[in-house]
Design brief:
The chain is built from three helices and 13 strands. The chain is 26% helix and 40% strand. Keywords: Membrane, Transmembrane, Transmembrane helix. The chain crosses the membrane at residues 35-56.
């Protein structure tokens, strides 16, 4: 029976369709059920693959990943930084006493201890006294510059001639870090301010028995003026420290040269060399004359 389309008036004019478009439309119409079925099959295959992948990953996590997470939680809970070692690294190392000296006289005595600050960027302030024959001297203030080694001295100890040794007692140590924000180059800072020179050192026998006459020129080669500049004079006898003296200048101006003359009474060996150590806290603004 020949095909007789109904309602031909409702059908658009087919003259504008190409043969290819007509063939595609016919093919799509006759195969749309199979296309739908293929789409469903592809969707099912995709779901199966996705579900299989998820099952594989969950299985991998259950057997491997879960225990790796447990180890990671334990690592996170355990501190990675040893703060005790870190504190020790950045804290100041303790001062050390490298030598003790006792210089008895006819009536009085001097006691000294060579003390070293091993820290290159710490200033230390402290109180000190000496125990001489068990009796304490009065408390005094002391300091050590970064990396400095110098004698801590008590002069003129009453009844010191009756003793034969002294023990240094340090208390109330206060460490102060000198940071790069305060001083850019600490070594240069210290060298510029502690630039002093000794010349024309002479030792002669004095007019009295057991007396030496010491004289030398001492100059301030720095660019800084100082109040109450204190210097310790170490007397050496053939490589052994035989005594310590001190000199204090009320003012010591930049470029100034001073003549130092000291009468030294002792029962010690002859002085063979002299060294002068500044005892100036260059980090204290009060020591400078503005």
């Amino acid at each position: 029976m020949p095909f007789k389309p109904s309602h031909l008036d409702d059908i658009d004019d087919l003259d504008n369709l190409s043969e290819k478009e007509l063939k595609f439309g016919y093919w799509f119409t006759t195969h749309r059920v199979k296309i739908y079925q293929g789409f469903l099959i592809a969707l099912v295959v995709f779901d199966v693959l996705l579900g299989g992948y998820n099952l594989f990953r969950w299985g991998e996590y259950a057997t491997v990943g879960f225990w790796a997470d447990q180890r990671l939680r334990q690592e996170i809970a355990r501190p990675l930084i040893n703060y005790t070692l870190l504190k020790e690294h950045f804290s100041a190392k303790p001062m050390s006493v490298t030598a003790n000296y006792f210089f008895p006289g006819a009536v009085k005595a001097d006691a000294a201890a060579m003390v070293k600050n091993p820290n290159a960027d710490f200033l230390v302030l402290f109180d000190y006294r000496f125990l001489v024959g068990g009796a304490p001297t009065q408390w005094r203030k002391g300091f050590l510059l970064p990396g400095e080694e110098k004698p801590i001295v008590e002069f003129g100890i009453e009844n010191g001639a009756l003793a034969n040794s002294a023990v240094l007692d340090l208390q109330n140590l206060s460490w102060q870090r000198i940071s790069n924000h305060q001083v850019k180059n600490l070594a240069n800072f210290m060298a510029e301010r502690l630039n002093f020179a000794t010349a024309e050192v002479k030792t002669e026998s004095g007019a009295l028995a057991n007396q030496d006459q010491l004289s030398f020129d001492f100059s301030n080669q720095s660019n800084f003026n100082y109040y109450q500049a204190r210097f310790l004079i170490l007397l050496d006898s053939n490589g052994n420290l035989s005594g310590i003296e001190q000199v204090v200048f009320d003012q010591f101006l930049a470029g100034e040269k001073k003549k130092v003359e000291l009468a030294i009474f002792n029962n010690r060996s002859a002085i063979t060399s002299v060294s002068v150590r500044p005892d100036i806290n260059i980090f204290d603004a009060k020591v400078y004359i503005k």
